[in-house]
Each structure stands twice: as structure tokens, then as C-alpha cells.
Amino acid sequence: MDIGEIISDAIKYPSQKWSKVVILGIILIIPIVNFIGAGYLFRSIKATFAGIDELPDFDEVGELFIDGLKLLVVGIVYAIPVIIIAAIIGAIFSLNPAVTIGTFTNLDLFAFTLSYSIYLIVALIIGLIEYMAIANMALYEGDLGAAFKFSEVLNRIAAIGWGKYLIWYIIMAIILGVVYAISIFLIFPLLIGIVLVPLIILPYFSLFSARSLALLFASSEEGEATQPEKPAPAE
Fold first, then answer.
1. 12, 25, 186, 232: least CB-packed within 10 angstroms?
2. What distance in Å separates the CA atoms of residue 129 and residue 148, rounded to the nearest whole number?
3. Which of 58, 14, 1 lies closest to 206, judged by CA?
4. Per-residue pLDDT tens for 5-35?
5. Of 8, 39, 5, whose CA–CA distance to 24 is shortest?
6. Are 78 and 133 in contact (CB under 8 A)?
7. Cα–Cα distance between 202 and 220 in angstroms, integer?
């Protein structure tokens, strides 16, 4: 399944039942309850792996909530390296007298640019791995440990192809930018945007992202574009 087919399928996916998109939007804007929404997005990935093309139901709310919490844990763990680097950079520059005085030299500017570039590169790499880690956890039916099977995650990316994966990542970033711009445009000048953005646009894009990730992950299996090979159960 190429990138074009993945994007095309994912665009159509949320529009099957707009009522579920709206329900997801309502859930996502309510604190604590939004973990259920995150769990629902995770369920849509699992459903795709099971060969189900329809939007999943909002049943077994407890399971959805737990899955949402698992996604939070994964996000926190994967953010640790980025947080550490940011803290180190912040600590180093806070000790630089030029920051307090406000007199940056060319060397200070170069050091800041280099440090920030390293931060962005690490954040990008972590983000790439985290996406696949979440999909791998879905493959293991929500087993939290599967998100940290780094060799499996990297092998899966290699099977997809780093080039293909980066193209998908860039396309998703561009689409996110467009969605963000549209959301800003609708919310500020148009009151209807206050309803349209959280209840339609954002949940639609979230489902689109989850579906496209699942299809991309599954495309690493030759001939089984929507059903990746599941690991054998431990004896």
C-alpha cells in the first residue's frame, strides 16, 4: 500500500459516521474523560489491524480509559530524552552572563543555534519512533511493554522503509499545519468555528491520523496491507 492509497483511505475513514466523530470531539474536550477519546483512537488502530474498516463503537469505556492512560505513559517515557536535553541546554545558557545582560556574541548565537538544532533532531527521531511504538503496542492488543520493544519497532520501520516513513511523516506534518491554520481562521473571526473545530475538524483529523498510522504500519507486511502479522503468544 503506497502513501497515496494510505492517505486516500484515511481521509474517507472518519466520514463513515459523523455522529461518532462528534461524540469523539465532545469526549476529547472534557478533562479526564479525554483519556477515553485517546483510547478510542487507539482502538481504531487495533480495529484496522483486525481488518475492520468501520469506525469502532464506544463500548467497554473502562478499556478505552485504560488504553488512554497507557498512551499517556508512552508519551511521557518517550519525552524523557527530549526533556533532559532541553533542561541541559536551558541550564547551560542560564549560566551564561550574556543571557542576563542581553549581549549575545556570534559564538553565543552559534552555540544556541547548534544546541537548538540538536534538540529538534532528537525530538524528530523520538517522534518517529514513538508513532511506531504506539502502533506496535496496538498490535500486541494494548500490552504496554510492546511500546518499548525497540528492536521490533526499528525493524518495523526498516520494513516500511525509512524513506516512505519520512514522506508519510512530512505529509502528516503539512496536513497538521493546514488543519491548525484552518482552525485558527475559523475560531477567531467566525463563532461557528468554536463548535466546528473541536467537534468536527480536530476529531476528524485525529481519526485520520490513527487510521493512516495503522495502514502504514500494516503496509510493512507484504500482501497483507490491513492485517500485520501478529506476534506468536508466549508459551
1. 232
2. 10
3. 14
4. 999 999 999 999 999 999 999 999 999 999 9
5. 39
6. yes
7. 28
